[in-house]
Amino acid sequence: MKTGPIVAAHIKMIRACLIFFVFVAVIFFSRPVYALTITPVVVRRDVKPGEVFMVSLQVRNDLNVSVSLSSEIKSISQSPSTNSVVIFSDTPSFHSAISWIKSPKDGIILEPGKTIPYPLSVRVPTAAEPGGWSAAALVSPKPLIATSEGAIQVQEKIATVLLFSVPGEVVVQERIKSFTTDKSWYMNLPVKFSLDYLNNGTVHTTPMTMITIRNWRGKIVSEIPVNQELRTVLPKNERVFIASWRMPFANDAFGLIKTLLVIPPAWGKMTASVTVGPSVDSQTATLTFWLIPIVPIVIALFIIFILLLWYRRALMRLRQSAPAEKDSER
Quick one: how far is CA 197 from the chain centroid? Predict the structure, then answer.
């Protein structure tokens, strides 16, 4: 019985069914995806009380449908989490600048593949207190076409964060809420540090500090930079910064294997410390952890054991051969 033609017929049938189902999915289940971009994402500016100026944003439509733009101004705050999500709110936060800003009227049409200016008008109150002020401009696109079911789809809002600094007598107060590691005992690097930073002052801060690591004798063995991305913390807000002590080759192709096999530059009881804030009002936090590289130590002991065993057997053979040589001489 020939099965070749039957198998070929079945394969053709399966292909036809797959093509049919893909066609049905495209027709009945596909929906247009709408996405816009706005630049710049963050605007920083020094302002003076009573100053009036314009902030020029750029909104681009990379899709094949025209959209109608609407906008709103929101207060912002930061979530005390590792990703530091910005929270938008209608309720004014500390030093909120939502009343300073006016956005364009709703209904601006943005055609496919086009970029248009999106100006914001800013009027700084004459009684604005010195310090850092903030707000966010959220832009919402609405497509001018309907889906197959007649429903209008709206994408998530895009936003620009506005950070203003008013000169004058300000309060700079940086504090450490917590400084921890994810474990108290490590078999090898990396060691992950978590710094919960609190800005109790009235200005925006960009904390840049170092985590200093010392061995059990007090000798500095490494310094780990914190906030290399230059992330900003709003007044009366907190933010968690993550830093890791790694081997220099941790990102190599065989970094994980090397990390397990190579003894770190220091081990035993380790002490880590970090300092934030200006020297006149700084705060330091310290913690301890253990670094015991068990894997490379076990491998080293095993190699020493093999060498000792080989040496012992070689010595025994040498001793056994010595009497035989004496008997042959006689």
Answer: 16
